What we know:
Helices cover 36% and strands 15% of the residues. It is of the alpha/beta class. A 7-stranded parallel beta sheet has the order 3-2-1-6-4-7-5, with helices on both faces. Helix 2 links the parallel strand 1 and strand 2 (47-51). The structure holds S-adenosylmethionine (SAM). S-adenosylmethionine binds at residues 97, 119-120, 122, 124-126, 139-140, 142, 148-149, 151, 154.
Amino acid sequence: MTPERFAxxxxxxxxxxxxxxxxxxxxxxxxxxxxxxxxCDAVGVLRAHAVAPRGGQVPTFNAxxxxxxxxxxxxxxxxxxxxxxALQQRGFQVLATHLSETSVDYRVxxxxxxxxxxxxxxKWGVSDEAARAADHNxxxxxxxxxxxxxxxxxxxxxxxxxxxxxxLAGMYQQPQLPRADYDKLSFEWAYPDLAPLYRERGEAxxxxxxxxxxxAKL
Length: 218
Ligand code: SAM
């Protein structure tokens, strides 16, 4: 662990936005799933959410990701509607990317609030049920011959609007992560091989100094 590498980890964790996330509902193509996670990493999403495609598994680990999976945890849910409700209970507004009578332009919502963007499957989009359970439906206006964007392109468009609003609000200047989570992730990202050993032994992670050095207990 070089001091430069540790400084980068600290910078990235200081910019993480635990109150911004996505819910990928049955996104089944690995390159789309990985591209969305890569955008999540770029805008500071701490943890993404996913519902596995029917009869399949959440499609991670694609070469296009630039290893974003290492930096953005994915929490799985049994169904989109259950996930929407669980996230609302945690205080998130859920914005479903869905064309309905009440849909608004994706730039209208206030993304400085705890926000989850619900993205639909490539073939059938967001289900009507999940869209109804969401707080708002949003849409990226389309003026071309084709009706929809690729899901990872739509995700990037919306997440960078969230980033724009949060930058203006100064939310990348003040660490948003609670101190305990910040310290825990600093150790796990800096020492990915050691962290599981500490967990297996039920031992607390050691404190790190500014260079990322610590007094090993193992
Ligand atoms: N046939 C599907 C439908 O009718 O919804 C098209 C799904 S589209 C290829 C896959 C996903 O990309 C959508 O569920 C949505 O999450 C996102 N998406 C694509 N175009 C969008 C747009 N113009 N506005 C908002 N989200 C969009």
